[in-house]
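[step 3/7] fold_predict: job queued, chain A
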Amino acid sequence: MTYCVGMLLDTGLVFLSDSRTAAGVDQISTFRKTAVFEKPGERVLVVQSAGNLAITQAVTSALREGLEAGDSKPNLLNCANMFEAAQCVGAALREIHRRDAEALKQFAVEFNASLILGGQIKGEAPRLFSIYSAGNFIEATAETSYFQIGESKYGKPIIDRVIRRSSSLNEAAKAALVSMDSTIRSNLSVGLPLDLVLVKRDHYAVARHISIDDDNAYFASIRKRWSEALREVFAQLPEPDWLRNPGPAAVRGDPRTGTG
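[step 4/7] structure written:
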């Protein structure tokens, strides 16, 4: 399992992924889940992947091999816009499905892959897509400005509460890291090192690509401070008085009072 999140902001894009792959409790490996396709000054595209590692690696390899064909067919460095880039990724995913899905089925292996594609091509605004196993996709909107793939449930609440399209890249990066920390704490199949990629709007290049491991002082600091802050706020919340002062509706098993 893995966890990836991509955020679309007015100021650019933020991507964060872990790198843990678990085939069992005693088979823990590290594989990068983020790939960058870049032509500085013209375009920058980031692909994140989750699901069956062999499938997602095959898709990434197919996308890279597509670049070697030059302009003879569409690829991530010659497509006219981000929509066509999403189509390229979807086509690569479907090609791997045509090649491998039936053989995998014979071994009771599900064809499981999901990807996030984001970036900016000169002439249009930054865009973000979530691409499914069938190669179809949806695009981020003003109302839904981020996508998660993999083990997403633990890290979703913090992003929903604090991130808006108007958030800065630094705010989004901080929220993504807190989101990742929540996921790591609750799921052993997600772990360090992390890949954090920041893309500034209209710069058409990666602004920062940071590998975060156990020695990263900033990540260690916010993990510690976030945990302390949560415990402090929790302690300050008023406690329920149902047992001390049950009120007139205190009937055993009454769902309004929590008794039973």
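[step 5/7] annotate
The chain has a mean pLDDT of 92.
The two ends are 39 Å apart (CA to CA).
exit 0
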